[in-house]
């Protein structure tokens, strides 16, 4: 996958265009991170629709490497609360592993993201947060 292709994916994510984002994944792709399984379009849209109703989340790519079967990047995930997201609301969605965030609060996290690629589509994604 070329950087320009990934930039289109990242822009669609930052624009909250979930259908375009999901179209970058191969059928049956493993989209699991932080205890959440987003392997269907509906699950993907439900999770991000809920999350992004409470926060503005953006990805800034700092380092990028790719080949025909791998994309690896390091970047900053910035999350800004636009509506209070408390522990009870997270628990009601089965997202106890996520931290609450208040309106106006900003969190920035360094994230490493690793994608396996086949025929130009992501077949799996893994994420790790540092710090």
TrEMBL record:
Could you tell me which residue ranges the SnoaL-like domain spans? 7-124
Report which superkingdom the organism of origin falls in: Bacteria
Q: Which Pfam families match?
A: SnoaL_2
Q: Which Gene3D superfamilies match?
A: 3.10.450.50
What are the boundaries of the signal sequence? none
What protein does this entry describe?
Answer: SnoaL-like domain-containing protein
Instruction: Name the source organism.
Output: Sphingobium cupriresistens LL01
**Classification lineage:** Bacteria, Pseudomonadati, Pseudomonadota, Alphaproteobacteria, Sphingomonadales
């Amino acid at each position: 996958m070329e950087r320009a292709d990934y930039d289109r994916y990242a822009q669609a994510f930052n624009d909250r265009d979930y259908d375009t984002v999901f179209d970058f994944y191969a059928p049956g792709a493993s989209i699991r991170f932080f205890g959440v399984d987003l392997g269907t379009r509906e699950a993907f849209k439900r999770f991000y629709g809920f999350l992004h109703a409470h926060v503005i989340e953006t990805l800034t790519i700092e380092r990028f490497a790719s080949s025909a079967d791998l994309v690896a990047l390091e970047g900053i995930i910035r999350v800004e609360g636009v509506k209070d997201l408390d522990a009870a609301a997270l628990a009601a969605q089965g997202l106890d592993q996520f931290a609450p965030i208040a309106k106006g609060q900003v969190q920035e996290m360094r994230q490493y993201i690793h994608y396996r690629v086949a025929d130009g589509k992501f077949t799996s994604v893994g994420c790790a947060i540092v710090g």
